[in-house]
Amino acid sequence: xxxxxxxxxxxxxxxxxxxxxxxxxxxxxxxxxxxxxxxxxxxxxxxxxxxxxxxxxxxxxxxxxxxxxxxxxxxxxxxxxxxxxxxxxxxxxxxxxxxxxxxxxxxxxxxxxxxxxxxxxxxxxxxxxxxxxxxxxxxxxxxxxxxxxxxxxxxxxxxxxxxxxxxxxxxxxxxxxxxxxxxxxxxxxxxxxxxxxxxxxxxxxxxxxxxxxxxxxxxxxxxxxxxxxxxxxxxxxxxxxxxxxxxxxxxxxxxxxxxxxxxxxxxxxxxxxxxxxxxxxxxxxxxxxxxxxxxxxxxxxxxxxxxxxxxxxxxxxxxxxxxxxxxxxxxxxxxxxxxxxxxxxxxxxxxxxxxxxxxxxxxxxxxxxxxxxxxxxxxxxxxxxxxxxxxxxxxxxxxxxxxxxxxxxxxxxxxxxxxxxxxxxxxxxxxxxxxxxxxxxx
Length: 442
Hints:
The protein is globular. The longest helix has 34 residues, at 38-71. It has helices spanning 31-35, 38-71, 75-103, 105-122, 129-143, 145-157, 160-192, 196-215, 233-237, 240-270, 275-281, 283-305, 310-324, 337-365, 371-399, 403-423, 425-437. The chain is built from 17 helices and no strands. By secondary structure, the chain is mostly helical.
């Protein structure tokens, strides 16, 4: 069938094939038969670097109570440091996506990880809020390559019916990293000091690069049967489906970022947990939430195997989990910390469930050779909202409390899902009609 984006490009057939670096034949065999179990090993290595990535990101948030005291930072000032990372990610998303599409994920991921690991290590020398902001910006310009490279690799290694599960496993690594971060960083802080907490994740990133090059020795070829048309950046920005996925991530992205960067401070300041208690109990919502990404991918695959079209699958999974995210409303009203953590666990589970299908939707709407840039576009949108929302969060907390912030994050995923399906309605109508004509297509 024609790719969904061709609904809007009357001259798509006249656009040249993209120029890129393909290290595999142009028409490879089915990924399952060509790569076998190797594709799951590659996925596990991508999972590992995503865990390390989110340990990097969480280090500052776990240390936030101590840093705010040591550097005399207000919540507004801390929000600006968080926004610096998001601004860096917004700046780097599209260039990183273009690198993955042109050079491939093998080289692109190696460059991205080395770049952000240097920035992570540079935080050892930061002594002011401004210096932390600069290094976090630097980190962001590299860390955004994790998702564009991971999505690029998964798209080529996994067929459609396995892909959302693979993406769910990949995306759940963010929550696993956040889960590990709290006890690990608190241990390093109490045993070896604050600077060691930045040094260890940086070293882990550098150690990952040779492992990646050893395991992922050959770039997979294009997805069998895919018609990859070359779209300029300007043409991609004219597509409704581009704005659909950007709107989706604009609303979903800041929700999980709020939990990553502010939940430790919430448990410490609003729920009056000690640093040790926060390090232990703070990992529970992330541990539960990590299952949400796998469940979201697994549910999508399960529905597809039972004959549902990809259109039905995305609507069921994304609207269903969007409604479940409303559980955030209850967090500030829970009478004790245990029930607050329970509600946080439900909300983070639901947000990761919808996120797995959000990234899966990128592969619904874009071809194999466009996935890197398309993921980069979503990152630009997520970076913009991730830049603005921490500023709003810090302002609201300083002037009111955490309650209005929890209200915002309760409804944002559902708003994002509604905007996505409105903008991409023609694409999903075409996919549904194709499913009715050929229900056994992979």
